Structures are given as structure tokens and as C-alpha cells.
Amino acid sequence: GSQMAAGEPESLPGQTFQFLITRVESRGRNIVVSHRALVDREREASLEKFLSEVKEGDIIEGKVTRLAPFGAFVEVLPGIEGLVHISEMSWGRRVNKPEEVVKPGDTVKVKIKDVNLENHRVSLSMRDAEGDPWADVETRFPVGASVTGKVENHSKFGLFVALAPGITGLLPEGVMRATKTAAQFQNLEKDAEVELEIQRVD
After folding, report:
1. Greater confidence, 55 or 124?
2. How high is the pLDDT of residue 153?
3. b/e burial code for range 118-146 (CB count within 10 A of at least 16 → b)
4. Contact (CB, 8 A) for 132 and 149
5. Cβ proximity of 126 and 109 under 8 Å
6. What DSSP state is assigned to residue 97?
7. Please, what sign has the CA dihedral across residues 44, 50, 52, 57?
8. Which of 70, 60, 39, 65 is nearest to 115 (CA)?
9. Is 191 left (phi over 0), alpha (psi -120 to 50) or beta?
């Protein structure tokens, strides 16, 4: 005999499925089988194959298969999906929904952050595949250099200016008020270009 999950459709009798034998009860003349155990074993074998071809830290290409509120699933090898969490999608912007960045079918570069064989889980990062924009910030934006940026927004702290993808500078409110052109800065709209000097890099 075989042990099946309760509540299965009446259309199942007569169909053929593959199962993994999980227990043999000789006294009760019963064979306990599990389809899920077979799927888990095949998935683990696929992940081991995946790890034989790549390693954590590698950057590879994959295809976005589906989106969820918390991120995007990316197929990195046939049958192997990994998750790019929403916090790992971009350095340059705050992502509220995965569809702001990707859609199913897109080919994306991802960095392998973690492969968990026990939980059959692959964690991926799109932003790490792009590289940390702050890695060489002091070389790209040395103190004293003149730079051109675009206004992101005004706040009580001052004017936030985008200098490069993932790099935002702050023109402090006090510094802005002390200039002869303070009124012009206050009237700048979003995406307006402004030329400034780098004072400090933290």
C-alpha cells in the first residue's frame, strides 16, 4: 500500500507519479512513500551541482521568474531559483516594490550571497553585483573638488544633491543660508543641476 496526503482530488486514481520510499512496515504490509521527500532530494542534488559550478561571492547572470512583495526570484541555473531581497536590489534608490526595478523575464546580474543546502535556499544580491559605489568615493570625490549634481530634495537639514548613482551629498541649511545666493538654492526644483564643492567625505 502507499500513504497519500489527505484531501487529494478524486481525479488522482489511475495517474502515475514518482515517489520516494520513506518507510517499509513489514508487519502491516505497508509501504510509506513521499513525493515531497523525492522533490527535496532532487532539489538538494541540484543545489550541490550548482555549488560545484559556482561559489559564494561569484557574479552570474540569471532570469527573473516571478516577483513577491519582499523581492524577486531569479533562475540562476535550470531548476535553481534564488531570491533577491528587496533590500538587495539597488544602491542608488530606495526600492518599495520589486516591480520598480525588474519584471519577469528580465536578465539580471546577481552576486551569490549564500547557499543554504539544509533549507534549499539561495540568497542573491543585485546591488552587490553592481559594486559598492562608496568603495572608492574619496578618490572620485576628493575634498576641494568641484562637482555637478542634481537636486534630490529639500529638508530641514539642507539640500540633498545626487552626485552619482548611490552617492548623495548634503548642502547644509546653515551653509546655504550664509551664501549670497541662498534664495536661488531654496528655489531649486527636483533634478535641477547645481555646482558645488566637496567639503567633507564621511
Report:
1. 124
2. 86
3. eeeebbbbbbbbbeebeeebeebeeeeee
4. no
5. yes
6. S
7. negative
8. 60
9. left
Cα distances (angstroms) measured from residue 48 to each of 15, 55, 57, 162: 31, 11, 16, 43
Task: Please name the amino acid found at residue 159.
Answer: L
Angle 30-44-82 (CA atoms, 0-180°, nearest 5)?
A: 135
- pLDDT on residue 20: 58
C-alpha to C-alpha distance for 110 and 42, rounded to whole angstroms: 24
Q: What are phi and psi of 88, to 5 degrees?
A: -110, 20
Locate cell 544602491: which residue?
Answer: 91
Tens digits of residue pLDDT in 133-150: 788 888 889 999 999 999
C-alpha dist (Å) from residue 83 to 30, 41, 126:
40, 20, 10
